[in-house]
Recover the amino acids of this structure.
């Protein structure tokens, strides 16, 4: 199977971060630092066509910021802050990123941009916080990106591959016996010929929910070893994929999942409140701040609107008498369970 035109998700992330670092150095306030960076950047860009493409995309993003903000400084400051946190912490922390952006830009319209890594900003397709997008691809496959999601498309004569960079995607695969369709993340790969399923990329794993037909799943370790074995997942089943293994398969209600996507809802049954707030965070500009350990044992069964997170928070407040929700600003909400005196 030919893979010469395909780039692994981990490689995409690394190249995007390198491009961000070069652009931060090239736009430094110190002219000497700019001059010293230029030679290294030119060599890096010429070393691989992917480097040149990544640099062009990042510069295009900065140009888009400049067209709205009036200058490129906000984008440079935001990228610098994001790259610094990425290097120190392994990924951009949402709370720190939002605070850095608030101080750097001073404009709420840019809050969504700072939440994401450079690979999100340069993706082929992406959605802003609180937005959904449906598109039919060149092969007839129909995909819907959930809030704050991003994908890259890698099609060639042998196969069709979608790299899920961030967030969640609903895929309705057009049949093509000659070219299987793959959804790839850092955790593994999902291979299909014609089927319908949902893939959600999380920090430590990828979650697959099957709605129609079946797919074959491989972990990142199996993919790297060119292993032919895979785990078959059928309609009405859900599986969590980690780099070195998969979770036991669990049953799901297909109609409920499809309805939730159609109506932009979060349907949960006996789920920890901390995980519910994680999901609301992805659909809300800014940050919902809470202590995970304090809320982990509170279980939620509810249907919450994802396109109205204020209402979703109010519903949680109504159902849990001891819960406290404080809106410091529209972009910072504190949730806790204060100890009664």
């Amino acid at each position: 199977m030919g893979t010469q035109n395909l780039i692994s998700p981990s490689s995409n992330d690394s190249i995007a971060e390198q491009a961000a670092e070069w652009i931060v150095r090239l736009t430094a306030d110190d002219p000497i630092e700019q001059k010293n960076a230029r030679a290294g950047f030119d060599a890096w860009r010429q070393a691989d066509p992917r480097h040149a493409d990544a640099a062009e995309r990042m510069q295009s993003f900065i140009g888009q910021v400049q067209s709205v903000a009036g200058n490129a400084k906000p984008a440079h400051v935001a990228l610098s802050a994001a790259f610094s946190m990425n290097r120190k912490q392994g990924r951009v922390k949402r709370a720190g990123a939002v605070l850095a952006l608030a101080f750097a830009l001073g404009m709420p319209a840019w809050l969504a941009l700072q939440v994401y890594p450079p690979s999100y900003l340069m993706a082929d397709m992406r959605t802003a916080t609180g937005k959904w997008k449906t598109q039919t691809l060149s092969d007839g496959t129909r995909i819907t990106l959930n809030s704050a999601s991003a994908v890259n498309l890698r099609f060639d004569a042998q196969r069709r591959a979608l790299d899920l960079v961030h967030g969640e995607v609903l895929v309705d695969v057009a049949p093509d016996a000659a070219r299987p369709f793959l959804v790839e993340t850092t955790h593994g790969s999902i291979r299909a010929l014609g089927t319908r399923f949902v893939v959600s990329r999380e920090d430590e794993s990828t979650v697959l929910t099957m709605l129609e037909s079946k797919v074959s799943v491989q972990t990142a370790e199996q993919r790297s070893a060119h292993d032919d074995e895979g785990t078959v997942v059928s309609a009405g089943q859900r599986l969590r994929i980690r780099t070195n293994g998969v979770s036991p398969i669990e049953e799901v209600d297909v109609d409920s999942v499809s309805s939730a996507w159609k109506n932009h809802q979060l349907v949960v049954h006996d789920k920890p409140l901390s995980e519910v707030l994680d999901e609301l965070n992805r659909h809300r500009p800014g940050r919902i701040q809470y202590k995970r350990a304090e809320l982990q044992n509170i279980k939620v069964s509810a249907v919450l609107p994802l396109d109205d997170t204020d209402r979703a928070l109010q519903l949680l407040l109504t159902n849990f008498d001891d819960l406290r929700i404080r809106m410091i600003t529209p972009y910072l909400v504190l949730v806790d369970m204060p100890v009664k005196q």
About this structure: The first helix runs from residue 9 to 26. The radius of gyration is 21 Å. Residues 1-10, 67-72, 83-114 have pLDDT under 50 and may be disordered.
